[in-house]
Amino acid sequence: MNFAFSEEQELLRETARRFLEQKAPSEVVRKLMETEDGYEPALWREIAQLGWQGMAIPEEYGGAGYSFLELVVLMEELGRSLLPAPFLSSVVMAAQVLLDAGRDDQKQEYLPGIASGERLATVAFTEPAGRWDEAGVTATARRADGAWVLDGVKSFVLDGHIADTLIVAARSEPEGITLFLVPADAEGLQRRRLETMDMTRKLAEITCRGVRVPEAAVLGPVGGGWPVLEKMQMMAVVALAAEQVGGAQRCLEMAVDYAKVRVQFGRPIGSFQAIKHKCADMLVRVESAKSAAYYAGWAAAEDNEELPVVAPLAKSYCSEAYFFVAAENIQVHGGIGFTWEHDAHLYFKRAKSSELLFGDPAYHREILAGRLGL
């Protein structure tokens, strides 16, 4: 077992970092986070030309056929840059559900578009109660005249306001939770972007009022949607953990760079023991978070039996590590770190929103304990 990234994966990292530094500096991130859509279509197309969206999609469905580890590398670099883009929602979440549950004709119809960047998709399963478990799905689906009728409200839907296709989870009685492919222009479907603290990641509320979809829109077996969503969440939190590692690493670098140039009492503040201790604590959190995220990425790529355990472990640890490092970065910067003009607050807000996305650390430790039989 080799836990080092391959030469090809390291080249992917270098290429991605160079591209994002050139195309998505802080000025671009700030511009995009103020827009309604929250991303730049032209830049999204440039990313597609690099093959990022199709990296882990099989070649027969228009992708490059690489493993989930390549997505981990990309997610880390995206987290480092804070680029606002529908990557997690479309490339990780929606594509994973389609790969796991879709019929071949559904994969042929939807995955090539995701791989090329021409189709934006997302998964709508969380509701206003804010629960990420099976019991939180209360939207309903009923059969009527050979079709399905969906009613209910979905909240905290990643990029739901711009997605062309939504994978909606609804409860069909008596079968259980069923997944449906719903076009964004479906009659009775309403979308509203939510105002959130982290403006670099857009969330939406989706309302279904008598939305009719054909039987062919069912994704996977009727009543068999939750195991698919559970697997998708495991993959998504691993990708998110990698993104958190990238953000934490950048915060550490910002703090260290500032400690070297900020002078007080005639010497750089990095020479003071208190600042040294802060930076050392940040380094320990970042490096240990990398270990957790990379191991979880390997488990996801191999579909290893350890994935159900290491996914919540990585999410809980990397969430807390990122938030700690982002907060300490502000402390090292002092007063300037609290200002709107400084980028430290952008990482702090992303750290907080990521901590809560898919469930907070306490929720994932509870999942971990249950799967370990504790």
The best one-word shape is: globular
In DSSP terms, counting alpha (H) and pi (I) runs of 4 or more, how many helices?
Answer: 11
The strand count comes to 10
Q: State the end-to-end CA separation.
A: 28 Å
Elements, N to C (H/E): HHHHHHEEEEEEEEHEEHHHH
- Whole-number radius of gyration? 21 Å
Strand order of the largest sheet: 1-4-5-8
Could you list the spans in which at least 5 consecutive residues all have pLDDT below 50? none
Structure description:
This protein is of the alpha+beta class. It is 52% helix and 16% strand. The chain contains eleven helices and ten strands. The strands form three sheets. The protein has a four-stranded mixed beta sheet, with helices on one face. A four-stranded antiparallel beta sheet has the order 2-3-7-6, with no helix packed on it. Helix 9 runs antiparallel to helix 11. It is globular, with a radius of gyration of 21 Å.
Structure at a glance:
By secondary structure, the protein is an alpha+beta fold.
What are the salient characteristics of this protein?
alpha+beta; 4-stranded mixed sheet; 11 helices; 4-stranded antiparallel sheet; 10 strands; 374 residues
What is the secondary structure topology, with strand pairs?
Blueprint: H1 7-23, H2 26-33, H3 41-49, H4 68-81, H5 87-101, H6 104-116, E1 121-124, E2 140-144, E3 147-158, E4 165-172, E5 176-183, E6 189-193, E7 203-214, E8 218-219, H7 225-261, E9 263-264, E10 267-268, H8 273-302, H9 307-333, H10 344-356, H11 361-372
Helix pairs in contact: 1-4, 4-7, 5-6, 5-7, 7-8, 7-9, 7-10, 8-9, 9-10, 9-11
